[in-house]
Amino acid sequence: MNESLRQVVHLVFGLGIAAFVLLFDRDLTLSVLILTLFVGFLLSDAVSRGYTIPVVSAVITGLERRDAAPGKGALFFALSAVFCLVFFTKEIVFVGLVVLSLLDSITTLAGVRFGRNRIYNSKSLEGTLAGVVVTAAALCLLVPPAVALVTATVTAFAELVSPVDDNLVIPVVACLVLTALP
Fold first, then answer.
1. By CB atoms within 10 Å of each CB, which of 39, 42, 108, 122 scores lowest?
2. Cα distance between residue 182 and residue 112, in whole Å
3. What sign results for the dihedral spanned by CA atoms 87, 172, 177, 21?
4. With the CA atoms of 92, 85, 134 and 179 taken in that order, what torsion angle do they form, in degrees rounded to the nearest 10?
């Protein structure tokens, strides 16, 4: 598994899902995400039982971490998007998914490449700081700079210390922070 390729795919698909949330009707978006979850669980179950599914099996083999259930990260991403769409406005969810896409990808890419100082859960100070800086800078295009910095910092801290998969945690924390801030 190529971690850099995995994170680039995470970034591209994550930003695509965020754009889909922003551009389309909330009900349509929820329907598509729920359908995607259902099909994803079916495919994940089939692959974990040893079935070879053209294209899907190759993608999972190439992009999924060895110790993870097939498609776990993608399923958690879609599940957190559905959860957030139920409880927050789609504009807030859009920003929350942008945070997930950027922060998760950048912290890993920078941590793998430049990480020297492990701080918690085998994550590096360099990766975490790079994730905060890049995410805050990008968010400045969407929200006021102070809100961008607080959102990036709080979500990076949540990603750092959470025992739960970050694809579930980051968007929810980002949406909560964005809702709480003026």
1. 122
2. 35
3. negative
4. 40
As a whole-number percent, the residues of the chain with pLDDT over 90 amount to 71
Residue 106: in which H helix or E strand, if any? helix 90-114
Contact between residue 112 and residue 121 where contact means Cβ atoms under 8 Å apart: no
Render pLDDT for 115-141 as a digit per residue (tens, 0 to 9): 899 998 889 999 999 999 999 999 999
The answer to pTM > 0.85 is yes
Structure-block tokens of residue 162: 């959470």
Q: Can you tell me whether residue 123 is helix, strand or coil?
A: strand
CB neighbour burial string for 74-111, b if at least 16 within 10 angstroms, e if fewer: bbbbbbbbbbbbeebebebbbbbbbbbbbbbbbbbbbb
CA distance to 5, 51, 162, per residue, from 159 (Å): 20, 33, 6
